[in-house]
Structure formats: structure tokens, C-alpha cells
User: Which sequence fits this backbone?
């Protein structure tokens, strides 16, 4: 029996919680140059814990970049596709950074920490690209761009019990903290930026803290969550959680070769904002094309059988012709069957389209085309 | 890692029981099951199939990857574990017991099968 996945021999970076993960018996994996917990025990159990109770994640690999100065908002409005100047202090926005051709360089969350202060959170794999692009694009503005990747550890508590767990450790007004909002506070005696964001499809919080405080906060959260079913959760279940929630992952659904419109996320591009922004002309053309003659659409696929589609597998029509490509696939713990996201020719992209299969190592396995997301929590 | 003494092992992380009436049971080791993560789908050789030592004879699919299953010996498959096909998580919960994969009537076996101690040293 041979595992077909490979690992890199280069020595990856370790987070402030590395010793904790090892003490917990985590299986570690190299992810974007970081040695990260893949899972602690069963990834399926971790997934179900987040859906039903709560999971605790170390996401310290994420890349934080801080912009401060009188023109911080203007610089971000020029550098990103979103309308960042309109974001209120204490709120956050999901947005993207594109190149001049409209290709996605990364998807981001931008937190407005003050009138003249923003924190951009990039994917670990793209943090350097984003830092370089922001630095270059901000050059004509009165703003300073700071690499804060080493300034923060990031812990996330996700799941329906997340608020209850966190409430027991902080005086911060969590009830008043809306989804996609963030406020500075103290959690278990540790100074933190408390954000109601996540990548799981559940309610939850992301806590940005100094690396030297990470261990103390992890232990406090573990103790506070012990009676409520909180478990440590690794990147493996994070991936299946976000997939069920229909959330794109850079390098899979989002790449430099795709525009936000290709990914069905054109709504993040705010043409109505006043000034120019990088990619505006190309994105306007992409928007028009997506409206009039979309080439492929991002859809959900649900297996009728039990074999699991993986990124890169071909989607085929009943005559065997290739009509698309899987970008992410996994067994869905919530649905109890394999699911995938795939770019599929527009003619085959309507939910319910008959005769769609995935080529799984030569065998055409039948799949149902569905609208995303696969899973939506009850509110 | 507790690898039962009475079994023999391959470097592909399969185990093989001592044959009774020429029929041996095959499974994957606890080490392999842990490395795979949650097994969600098992494609096992069918009864009557001839498997050849060192060649693929099925696959195990987990959350993160798919892995080929190699036959540790040559012979004819006499039984595939229906319980594992119905509930592949048995491979994780009981790799040396209820999570066995198939039984084979051995006609030939390679010389390089490992003892438990050799396998434990190999798997680390």
C-alpha cells in the first residue's frame, strides 16, 4: 500500500503552537512552507465536531499585512477589487487582489481596525505575492505597508458552540459582534483582535494574538470548551468544511488564470467605486463575457456512488467528451457521500443536468450537478 | 506501534496471516491506516480474482488521497471483506481484526516478507 500524495523534504516553518500540536499527537503536513496540523485523530470526527459543537484551529500560517496612513483606504481601493473605503471601522470585507489582466492573485479578508488602519489577511501560499503587490501599488499613496506575518498567531474557534466558549473567556461584546466584524479585546487575559470570521460555514471567531500568547490562549480555549465538545481540528477538516460551504480555495477554484467572474464571485468587484483600480478594464470585459457568453461555470457535484473525485479529474458528458474539470473534491462527512466543485461548460452547468460523470482513474462515475453551497447552517 | 507477532508484513504496509488450509488473510497495518486518515471507500479484489505478489489489486480511498493496495502474495481470492466495503472506517478502527481486506489461497509468496520486528523497525 503506497500513499500517492507526496511530501516536501524542505524544512518548513513552525507555528508558536508547534509543541502543542505534537503533544496532542497531530499528524503534521507541509502546507505552503509551514508545518501544520493536518489532523489530530479522525478528520471526519473533527469535521462533525465543528458542524455540531466546536473546533479549535491553529491558522498561524495565514499572512497578515497592515496598512496605515491617511491614504490607506485609497491605496486599498486602488490595489484591490473591493470598495474598501466604504468599510466601517470594526468591520471586515471579503475581497480579492487581481493583476492587470483581471486574474486573481489571492482572495483576502480586510479588517478595518481604524480610520487609517487596515489589516489584510492573505493565504499563506500567496502572502509574499500580496505583500509585494500591495507595496508596489501603494507607492503613490501616503500610506505605509507593514509585513505583520510574524506579529500574529491566529487561532480560530468555529462551530455552533464557539460563541458560548468564547463568552466565558472575555468581557468583549460578542453578542454585538456581527459576522464579518472585528474588535480589539482581551480573551483569557490575552490581548487579541477578535473577529467573527471563518472558513467553515459555521458561526465562529478568529483570534489574532501575539505569538508568545498563543499557547496560553489555546489552553484556555481548550479548557473552556472541554465541557461543550470542543476538539482540536486540523487543516484536513478545514478543507472539507469549506468545500461543503461552497467556499473557494486559492490554487483550486481561484487561480491567476481565473477572474472573479469565472468563479461566480463577480459581486466582489466594485466597479461603482470612484477611482481606477488594478484590473478594472480587464474585469469589465470579463463581467460582460460572463453575462453574455460564459465559457465555464463553477458548480457543485454530488456523487451517486462512493468514489471520490479529486482536483484535476475530468468532468465528462454521457458521450464521453470532456466538459469540465474538478477543482476540489472530498468525501463529505455531512452529506455522507463524495462531493466536488468543478468548472463545467455552461451548457452542462444547470443544476439537475443529466448525464454528467467524473472520470475517476478511467471509470466514469455518475454525478449530480447541484447549486453551491452543499451545506448551509441554520441561523 | 503494536504489530502482532503472528503476522508477516510487506514494505507496502500490508499484513498477511499464516495460511490455514492454504488460505491467508490480508489487511493493512495500523501504521498505514493512521497515515491514510479516515478510509471512506475500499475497492477490493473480487472472489475468484487472481492476485500477483507486488502488483496492485485494489485501492483504498481516504479523505485526502487514494492509495493502491498491493497483493503481498500470489493466489486466488476466496473472500473480500463485505463489512469493510459497507463500512470502510473498520480499516481505521480495527486494521488487524475486523478491518481485514481479503483472503487469498496462496500459490506463491515472495521471500522478502517481513517479521513483526522487521516491519516495526522499517515503519519506525
Assistant:
Amino acid at each position: 500500500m503506497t500513499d500517492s500524495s507526496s511530501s516536501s523534504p524542505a524544512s518548513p516553518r513552525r507555528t508558536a503552537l508547534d509543541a502543542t500540536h505534537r503533544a496532542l499527537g497531530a499528524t503534521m503536513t507541509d502546507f505552503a512552507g509551514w508545518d501544520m496540523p493536518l489532523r489530530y485523530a479522525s478528520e471526519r470526527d473533527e469535521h462533525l465536531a465543528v458542524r455540531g459543537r466546536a473546533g479549535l484551529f491553529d491558522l498561524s500560517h495565514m499572512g497578515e499585512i497592515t496598512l496605515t496612513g491617511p491614504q490607506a483606504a485609497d491605496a486599498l481601493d486602488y490595489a484591490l477589487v473591493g470598495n474598501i473605503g466604504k468599510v466601517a471601522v470594526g468591520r471586515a470585507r471579503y475581497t480579492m487582489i487581481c493583476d492587470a489582466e483581471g486574474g486573481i492573485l489571492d482572495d483576502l479578508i480586510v479588517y478595518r481596525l481604524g480610520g487609517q488602519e487596515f489589516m489584510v489577511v492573505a493565504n499563506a501560499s500567496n502572502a509574499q505575492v500580496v505583500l509585494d503587490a500591495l507595496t508596489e501599488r501603494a507607492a503613490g499613496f501616503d500610506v505605509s505597508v507593514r509585513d505583520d506575518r510574524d506579529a500574529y498567531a491566529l487561532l480560530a474557534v468555529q462551530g455552533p458552540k464557539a460563541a458560548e466558549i468564547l463568552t466565558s473567556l472575555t468581557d468583549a461584546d460578542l453578542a454585538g459582534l456581527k459576522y464579518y466584524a472585528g474588535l480589539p479585546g482581551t480573551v483569557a487575559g490575552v490581548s487579541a483582535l477578535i473577529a467573527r470570521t471563518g472558513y467553515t460555514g459555521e458561526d465562529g471567531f478568529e483570534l489574532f494574538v501575539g505569538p508568545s500568547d498563543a499557547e496560553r490562549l489555546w489552553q484556555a480555549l481548550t479548557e473552556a470548551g472541554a465541557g461543550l465538545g470542543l476538539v482540536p481540528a486540523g487543516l484536513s477538516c478545514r478543507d472539507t468544511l469549506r468545500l461543503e460551504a461552497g467556499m473557494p480555495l486559492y490554487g483550486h477554484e481561484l487561480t491567476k488564470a481565473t477572474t472573479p467572474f469565472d468563479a461566480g464571485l463577480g459581486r466582489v468587484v466594485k466597479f461603482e467605486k470612484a477611482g481606477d483600480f488594478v484590473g478594472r478594464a480587464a474585469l469589465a470585459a470579463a463581467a460582460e463575457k460572463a453575462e453574455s457568453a460564459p465559457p465555464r461555470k463553477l458548480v457543485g457535484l454530488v456523487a451517486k456512488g462512493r468514489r471520490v473525485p479529486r482536483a484535476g479529474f475530468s468532468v465528462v458528458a454521457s458521450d464521453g467528451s470532456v466538459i469540465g474539470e474538478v477543482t476540489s473534491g472530498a468525501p463529505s462527512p455531512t452529506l455522507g457521500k463524495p462531493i466536488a466543485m468543478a468548472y463545467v461548460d455552461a451548457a452542462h452547468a444547470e443544476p439537475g443536468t443529466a448525464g454528467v460523470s467524473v472520470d475517476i482513474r478511467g471509470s466514469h462515475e455518475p454525478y449530480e450537478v447541484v447549486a453551491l453551497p452543499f451545506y448551509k447552517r441554520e441561523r | 506501534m503494536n504489530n502482532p507477532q503472528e503476522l508477516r508484513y510487506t514494505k507496502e504496509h500490508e499484513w498477511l496471516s499464516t495460511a490455514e488450509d492454504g488460505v491467508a488473510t490480508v489487511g493493512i497495518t495500523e501504521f498505514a491506516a493512521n497515515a491514510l486518515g479516515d478510509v471512506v471507500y475500499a475497492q477490493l479484489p473480487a472472489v475468484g480474482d487472481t492476485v500477483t505478489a507486488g502488483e496492485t489489486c485494489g485501492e483504498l480511498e481516504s479523505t485526502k488521497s487514494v492509495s493502491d493496495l498491493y497483493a503481498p502474495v500470489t493466489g486466488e481470492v476466496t473472500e473480500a471483506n463485505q463489512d469493510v466495503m459497507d463500512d470502510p472506517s473498520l480499516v481505521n478502527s480495527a486494521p488487524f481484526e475486523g478491518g481485514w481486506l481479503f483472503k487469498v489461497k496462496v500459490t506463491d509468496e515472495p521471500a522478502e516478507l517481513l517479521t513483526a520486528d522487521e516491519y516495526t523497525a522499517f515503519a519506525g
Remarks:
- The first strand of chain A starts at residue 2 and ends at 3.
